[in-house]
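Supplementary material to the annual report.
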Amino acid sequence: MTSDLLGPIAYGSFFLVMALLNGVVCLGLNVQWGQTGLFNVGVAGFVAIGAYVSAILTTPPSDGHLGGFALPMFFGWLGAAVAAGGASAFVGGLTLRLRADYLAITTFGVAVVVQLVALNAQWLTGGAFGIAFIPRPFESLASTPVLYDLANLALVAAVVLALYIALERLARSPWGRVLRAIREDERAAMALGKSPTRYRLQAFALGGALMGLAGAMEAHFIGFIAPESYLSSLTFQVWAMLIVGGSGNNLGALLGAAVVWALWTVSGLVISDVVPASYEARAAALRLVAIGVLLATMIVLRPGGLIGERALVSRHVADAERNA
Amino acid sequence: MSGAPILSVERMVAGYEPGLPIVNGASIHAARGEIVALLGPNGAGKSTLIKAIAGLALLTSGEVRFDGRDLTQMPAHLRIREGLAFAPQTDNVFASMSVDDNLKLAAGFLPSAKRARRTAAMYDAFPDLARQRGLRAGRLSGGQRQMLAIARALLGEPKALMLDEPSAGLSPKFVEIVFAKLAEIRKSGVTIVLVEQNTRAALALADRAYVLVQGRNRHEGEARALRNDPTIAALYLGGVETEGAG
Amino acid sequence: MNPQVAVDGLMNGALIGLGAIGVTLTYSILGFANFAHGELITVGAYAAMAIAGGVATLVVGSDTGLGALSISPALILAAPLAMALTAGFALALDRLLFARLRSNSQSIAIVMASFGASMAIRAAIEFVFTSRPAYFTRELQIAKPVAFGLKATPNQIALLIVAGVLLVGVHLLLSRTQIGRAMRAVSENPALARAAGIDVDATIRFTWVLGGALASAAGVMLGLLVQIRPFMGFDLLLPLFAAAILGGIGSVPGAFFGALVIGLGEALTVQFAGAEWRAAVAFMVLIAVLLIRPSGMAGRAA
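Predicted assembly:
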């Protein structure tokens, strides 16, 4: 990857594409958390599901992994969204009626198992070697990095714009209003005959589908995936992006993605260029410390994030107090 | 009224969330050895008021004085040490723990020499509980659970006992039994403040009563006089309009 | 099927169980799934390693194993100190982070914060100690015949004894002592506990101390029997949660039983499917419990 980064335009577009792709994951997480209040601790797993499903559907036959369907990229992306959305629906269906942290624990488990399968089911996923030769958009431009990166940037930007508009309209639609009502006053919403669990399930599945889509898009942009791209540090990164940018807010999600991705990239460059090689791993660890502390601090100080949104005190807390 | 009030609440403003008061400047007093009833329609703030006295609701202004001490800022768990006991309405026993553990828990704040004696005293006063001391409290009937809640509150020899709707969910027979128990308790000198929806039973037991509507004092008087007072019925009917989500 | 699987399962289960006891306690009393619990285990192991190493440099020869065990006097001295240190660390974490979130926010914010804290702690350990696996001792242990043709190493026997002692000890603490009753009361109904005169904040602090100490013991045994590395606690998190949920949150014997089930399942998986699939067992147990009986074996309704 680094060998292609010649020229500031090429690098700049590569950076923006990655920032936008992280932004899509953030948009998905925003639907789950910002709009529905659900805590997904296994984001990396759902992104991985999308990436692997799309890769398997679109790659030519190979001895190294399941493949040979050689479907067009569009079907790969669609399959990715459906698979990740389906997995989210399964987890949601199982845990939404239970306490909120059971959803967290189960999504955590999904990420662990997805990583496990990706690493060990070599016949399916290529194991530690991953899947290569994933069809890339604008393949013909691949020899000119600048054009390739710019074309992909245009594609990804168009998709992100379309998603942003769609999500904003969805938030203002009747469906979105019910979701907000459920978040603010569950009992009132129930009195109107709306089943909170059904809406939360739909929102959770939608968010998961977006994460899968982002995973697929990234897989096709890079052309190669491996299990180590989907570790818990990815989940932390995305959460940091959402919290920094402002949860509940689609624009904030994209902005947070850009800001945190910039910090991540710059610190990565500093580590590889400035820090002596023997200390690189430790410096990288320090970077993760910073993210963890940032995440915890922002939760304590400003649950609303940079582009804040009024933090809603859950009525459930008050009800629980009343019934004590 | 005989003597200075043992419990005095002045102009209390309280609720569960800041900025959303449920009690709006109510005041009540109870004299030593009295039984005082707090009546009123749903949503009147009666429950919230005694919870705030117990330290379990958010008190934004007003004063709570008990036995000569200002309790307003005192942490909830210390109030029982002052002699002020409270039995909530729902979830008023530890259902996952045995009857015996419920009582032993309540004895915890007493000096160790008194613990066994007071626990035994409760078993004497509540023989039904003694028979079921090993049973998980969640398996008790509603009436027995109420008895356990009262026993738990009485264990520390409180000067005053506050109860939130002790008749709730009980059959008429058990309401009689519980209220007879309360009369017995008063004989030992314990002041009793009870919030009640069952106005008839409450006024039959109490010496005085307050009627609260929408978090404010609206009426008060001797229980004897209030039994036949048409104002009360009017206040309850008028209060129906204020019943929101309930 | 090799009957040695039963021993492997038992040992796995005991290791998970040591950690699960702490998880079920803190989960039920503090009221949230603490994603940083794995890091308490890791901190306990590294603290013991650092202290034992310090002792060994001061007192020459104190790092050789006693008798057949590979547990050295240095480690025996270090373990309780590490437990105290970890308990203090847990208290500090609560003071710094969780206590601030208990009063005002939705409870899921605390879980999120624990998630962030776990990353920070894990990476900090990696920063200080690097990710290279470490060991308390280089001495190798030979499995000796125990009974019925089964074999176990002396360290494994020690694990069973430690696990048994702690299991019984915690159970007695919860059922027979005032602080144990207070903990059970707070886990069920903090407001009622206050009305009954319980200092809920003090009880919470004690829970953190106990949870931290238990996690540290788990970390020391895990480090002794397997290895010490920054991800050791984190990798145990899913089995710990699954065990606690299977047993019913708040039930100490339940959590240990759940751990034994998972431990045995892992041992069987290693036999039949290969060691790399071990971690999937915990997930499958979790899904099964959530499908069949989410409150777990001993639990109240969630």
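Residues 73-104 of chain C form the longest helix (32 residues).
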